[in-house]
Specification:
alpha/beta, four-stranded mixed β-sheet
Length: 529
């Protein structure tokens, strides 16, 4: 039986139940959901948002959550798995070098519990990414957390920071599947839970083709650990060019949406401040500076100067809910980094004072997405984001592989950005610019080598000479430095979005064909009413 069930207000959804429960009736259900047992199916109708528990006859409980049609989710995630060659549970006491070596092993659940107390104190559930060794050693505590509303997800054992192996590069697909199958069965048997959420850390290669295909075959519906701006990191992630929020990946190229019914929803490693991240060059882009990984914002000094940084990011997301079905803010921490009291306190202040985001586990969000985007459907996302950073002049760029951007605003802020993705496109514009800041054409469905990443489109330089508006649309005169058969040209207007164009806050981007030199382009929006 599932750990939890999800419904949407105003919709009815059916879930299959195990054969052993076919004769059990619904004994009780919260007032916010109508629950009816129909043969081997559980039928849920969402009446109002809420979280609670359904009880089947015979004392069989199941958590239930009802969400709205549009949601801005907050998902706290803690990863806690067993490591060979590293004992992170003593790292704070003895220092990193002394807890690594061939005879060292273990996890840092002792640290993870400290952060869990902070998250639970703010009334939020945790998605745990763990393995059988962690569950076996701390069964009572983890079971208590799950009874209280946390989700148990799966993360296989891994190695140390110094591991150079990558399951996606050095093992076959069959070998990877066999390892994952065995470790998942170990955790399921110990916990007695039907686990459908998984995570992969970078110490065994992060999400890649072998990992994705293994997790898909094992029935996962949520897969955590994508780093949309990572070209390389630790064992090498090669994720650059991915969407920055949930999507169903292609099983041929996990970096892009694939419209594949069986694929799990992929979740980002941790939510990024997109405005500042996209400006940073280097192999990790802005991953090591601007994100909800609290260690990053301490290392680059943001946390010391801007206590409301995460609140600003959350407010950005909330402001976009009217134009989108959803936004997801993942706040992840690894067990070995969860023992720092100052950093946990920073997260605690955010969790307590956060804007009204909807708390949910990764599994619950994946179930909600399955209802909203059934089958091969993929979401589209159109975000308008203000720069949340007030202390640009105080940021410390400590990583040589990710240098300070050439256009870094020591005083003031970056312009707002309009960021969009769907199954065919990822594009980012600075507000008011006709030319995209960055553009990936997913519609090419190109296969990418495992140790490589998506490449942004090389676009010609353009110079807009004139934009003339008339009752039916726009005529644009511009010069281009080269031919381009598919150029996303932004028009900032309140006019309706033309067919085939991308919707942006305050405008749209139409795909136009350019030739080198002078161009006159017609963009029809339909007659003004």
């Amino acid at each position: 039986m599932r750990q939890s069930y999800v419904a949407v207000v105003g919709r009815t959804v059916k879930y299959g139940l195990p054969e052993r429960l076919k004769n059990n009736a619904v004994e009780s259900a919260p007032a916010f959901v109508r629950a009816v047992k129909n043969g081997c199916s559980l039928e849920l109708e969402g009446l109002a948002p809420g979280r609670g528990e359904i009880l089947l006859s015979g004392g069989v409980p199941a958590r239930v959550a009802v969400f709205a049609e549009k949601e801005a989710f907050l998902a706290p995630v803690i990863s806690c798995n067993y490591h060979e060659g590293w004992f992170p549970g003593i790292q704070n006491e003895v220092g990193h070098p002394r807890c690594c070596g061939p005879d060292m092993h273990g996890n840092a659940f002792n640290y993870a519990r400290r952060l869990a107390d902070v998250i639970h104190g703010a009334g939020l559930p945790v998605t745990w990414l763990a393995d059988g060794y962690t569950w076996r050693n701390d069964t009572e505590t983890l079971e208590e957390y799950c009874r209280a509303g946390d989700e148990l997800g799966f993360m296989p054992p891994s190695r140390s920071h110094f591991n150079t192996g990558n399951y996606n590069l050095f093992l076959s697909e069959k070998e990877t599947f066999k390892i994952m199958e065995g470790q998942l069965a170990f955790l399921r048997n110990l916990s007695g839970k039907n686990i459908r959420t998984a995570g992969i850390d970078q110490f065994i290669g992060a999400i890649g083709t072998n990992i994705l295909r293994a997790m898909t075959k094992l029935g996962m519906r949520a897969l955590w650990g994508i780093g949309f701006d990572h070209r390389e990191c630790d064992t090498s992630m090669y994720h650059y060019g991915c969407p920055w929020n949930p999507y169903k990946p292609s099983l041929k190229n996990f970096r892009i949406p694939g419209r594949e019914n069986t694929a799990p929803w992929i979740f980002d490693w941790t939510y990024r401040d997109l405005v500042n991240t996209v400006h940073v060059p280097g192999v990790n882009s802005g991953a090591v500076y601007f994100s909800t990984d609290v260690d990053d914002i301490y290392n680059c000094r943001i946390a010391y100067h801007q206590p409301d940084y995460y609140n600003r990011i959350a407010e950005n997301l909330l402001a976009n809910v009217p134009d989108n079905d959803f936004a997801v803010m993942v706040v992840h921490q690894e067990d070995h980094d969860s023992g720092d009291g100052e950093r946990n306190a920073y997260l605690g202040r955010f969790f307590e004072s956060r804007p009204p985001l909807t708390a949910a586990t990764l599994g619950e969000i994946a179930d909600w997405l399955d209802i909203k985007y059934p089958g091969k459907a993929e979401p589209c996302k159109s975000l308008y984001l203000e720069d949340p950073l007030d202390c640009h002049d105080k940021v410390y760029f400590y990583s040589g592989s990710t240098p300070k951007p050439a256009d870094w605003p020591e005083k003031g802020k970056y312009p707002p950005v309009c960021a969009y993705y769907d199954a065919d496109t990822q594009v980012i514009f600075e507000r008011g610019s006709h030319a995209p800041f960055r553009y990936f054409d997913y519609s090419k469905q190109e296969e990418v080598a495992e140790d490589s990443f998506c490449s942004p489109e090389e676009l010609p330089e353009i110079r807009a000479l004139s934009i003339k508006e008339d009752p039916a649309g726009f005529t644009v005169a511009l010069e281009a430095s080269a031919d381009c058969p598919k150029y996303p040209f932004a028009v900032w207007t309140e006019r309706p979005v033309p067919r085939g164009a991308i919707r942006l806050r305050g405008g749209f981007a139409a795909f136009v064909s350019l030739v080198k030199g002078a161009n006159e382009i017609r963009i029809d929006c339909g007659e003004r009413v």
